[in-house]
Structures are given as C-alpha cells and as structure tokens.
Amino acid sequence: MTTKEINQRRDARLAYDLVSAASIDRDLMERIVAVRNLVCGRIVFTTSFGVEDQAIAHAIFEQALEIDVVTLDTGRLFPQTYELWAQTERRYGRRMSAFCPNRARLESLVARQGIDGFFASVEARRACCGVRKVEPLQRALAGAAAWIAGLRAEQSDERAGISFAAFDPNHRLIKVNPLFDWTRERVLSFIREHDIPYNSLHDCGFASIGCAPCTRAIALGEPERAGRWWWEQEEKKECGLHRPRRAASAHERSENAAEEALS
User: Is 193 exposed, middle or buried (CB count within 10 Å of its CB: 0-12, 13-18, 19+)?
Assistant: First the structure.
C-alpha cells in the first residue's frame, strides 16, 4: 500500500470517527471538544463573523481550546464587521489572525478590472474572490490537519448535502461543519442564550454578510444567501471557498499567470 493510500484511509477513518462523535451529542460545545480531541495536529477555524461563526468562536474561546481562529480580511468588509471583530476580541481576550490578499496580485487585479470591476461579469467577480479570499485561505490552511467552517445544510441548495465532517481533497485535510444540521433559528437562539456579540447588520435584514459591495439585505421569503452577489442571476453562487474547484477559463488562466509573475 502506498503512502497516499495509507493517508487516505487514515483521513477517511478520522472523518468517520468525527461523524460518529457528532451523532452521539448534538451540543455545539461538546462537538467542538470532540473535534479537538480526535484530530492530531493543527486545527483552523475560519470566521467571517456571521452568526454561525460567532457561535463557533464562542465554543472555542469559552473552552480555551487549542484551535487557531483566523479571518480573511479582503479589504472590502463592512465597517460593522470590523467593529464586531474588535468587540469579539475584547469579549474573549483572544486575538484572531488576519490573512490579507497578496499585495502584488491585488494591485494587478485592480489595475486590470478597476476598483469595482467584479460587477462586469461572473468571471471578473470570481477573479476578485480568488485574489481576496481563495488564495489567502490557502495560506491560512497551510499545514493544518482540519478546517472548521460555519456552513449549514439549510443555507442553500449548494450546501444541502454537507455533512459534519469529510475529507476535503482540495486542501487535503478534514473539513468540519459543526452546525451542518442546525437551523438558523437554533443558531440565533444559541447567540441569545449565551449573549454572544453579533453583527448589527443582521438586525437590518442581512442574513449572510460578506464584502460590502457584494452583499445586500434580503426581502421577506428570499433564501438566506440571496443577498450575496445579488446582481448575478445564476442559481448557485459561491466565492470558491466552499465549492469543488472547477477548471479555469482561458481568461482566468491568463489573469492567474499575470498574478504569478508579479508575486
């Protein structure tokens, strides 16, 4: 058996053990402890400061778990998001690491697209997400054995099939979604119960919050993620952080080559 096959079997077994632990107890605090106890190596939790992420951060910080909490500072976040970032650090007395876009790649992107060029096409928007989010995520997860995210199956059709834990072939680690089976109301109830700080934009109709230009409040009856990339008409909208990698278009390949030359 090759080393690759051995590692794949090990990761599959770990994912199974994590899923088993989740099925035993549905409490978030204990789920996070189970992840820390079962995973050998560095664990990274990426937060964008939504209500799901605030609930998970609370479970990590309140239990003083050895889990790295990081965020992707795209440079285009809402002022309210930065305010919550500071408020959360004050509340729990822990710093959260920021991963920012590569300077040369960002400068090249803005030079080609303009500051708001992502409105021009889906390709342009994905290129922006690639520079501001996807590449910084790769750096954030480097060397990690597991990645914790705030995804829920209820959030969108794209996420309906997620499980508590599974092997992520893109980043070659175990990806854990501790809130995969929670409803939004259950998350909000947890936030209220523990008096956890949350983004004030949620009180203004923002269900899912990302970069300021790319996020709007949703209308009554709209899906949770309808306010993300609101000008696009496609049904399945993701930035690339939580979707299988697709083949790049010729236009994107040329942009990536230019960014590589500058980095």
Answer: exposed
pLDDT per residue over 192-203, tens digit each?
999 999 999 999
Q: Which CATH architecture has domain 3-262?
A: 3-Layer(aba) Sandwich (3.40)
Sign of the torsion angle spanned by Cα atoms 170, 216, 200, 79: positive
CA distance 216 to 230: 7
Contacts of 255 (CB under 8 A, 6+ apart): 109, 112, 127
Whether 40 sits among the annotated catalytic residues: the reply is no
Helix (H) or strand (E) holding 83: helix 79-92
End-to-end CA distance of the chain: 38
Q: Where are the domains of the chain?
A: 3-262
Q: State pLDDT tens for residues 141-198.
A: 999 999 999 999 888 777 788 889 989 988 999 999 999 999 999 999 999 999 999 9
9 burial (CB, 10 Å; 0-12 / 13-18 / 19+) is exposed
Average pLDDT, the chain: 86
Largest CA distance in the chain: 56
pLDDT in tens, 7-59: 656 666 666 677 666 655 679 999 999 999 999 999 999 999 999 999 999 99
pTM for the predicted model, two decimal places? 0.84
Residues 6 or more apart whose CB falls under 8 angstroms from that of 86 comprise none
Question: Given 129, 211, 214, 239, which residue is catalytic?
Answer: 239
Residue 124 has pLDDT above 50, yes or no: yes
3 state SS of 176: strand
Contact between 70 and 140 under an 8 Å Cβ cutoff? The reply is yes
